Amino acid sequence: MSRQKKLALAKTWWNDYKFHLKFAVQTPEDLNEMLDYSLDRETMDTLKQAQEVGIPFFVNPYYLSLLDTQASVVSLGADLAIRQYMMINDNYFFPVTTIKIPVFHSI
Predict the structure, then answer these.
(1) Buried b / exposed e across 10-32, counting CB within 10 Å, b at 16+?
(2) How does residue 23 score in pLDDT terms, banded at 50, 70 and 90?
(3) For a disulfide at 20, which of 53, 60, 88, 98, Cβ 3.0-4.6 Å?
(4) pLDDT tens for each residue of 88-103
C-alpha cells in the first residue's frame, strides 16, 4: 500500500467516531504509556484511586493528540488546560467524615 493510500485510510479512520471510541484510553497505565511516561507519581496515584472507586476514565485519540509530551522551554505548560480537563484531580476525593448533614429537630 502506498504512503498516500495509508494517509487516506488513516484520515478516514480519524474522521470516524467509532475509531475514537474503540481506541480510547481507559486505564492510568495506558494513558501514561501513550504520553511517553510523562505523568508524575501523584497524578498516577490519583488516577488509580479514581479507578478503584469506580470513577470512569476515558480519553479518546483526539484529546491525546493535543498533548505535548516533549515540550520545549517555550511551550512548557501549553497543554495544561487540556490536561486538567482530562485528568481527575484529588479534589474529587474527600473523607466521608467531612460531610455535614443538618439535623432538624421538631418542636
Answers:
(1) eeeeeeeeebbeeebbeebeebb
(2) very high
(3) 60
(4) 766 666 554 444 555 5
In one-letter notation, the amino acid at residue 48 is K
- d(C-alpha 106, C-alpha 17), whole Å: 56
Reduced to 3 states (helix: H, G, I; strand: E, B; else coil), residue 63 is helix
Q: Give the position of cell 475509531.
A: 19
| 86 phi-psi bin (left φ>0, alpha ψ -120 to 50, beta other) | alpha
pLDDT of residue 7: 94
**The total number of residues written for the chain in this structure:** 107
Backbone angles phi, psi at 83, to 5 degrees: -60, -45
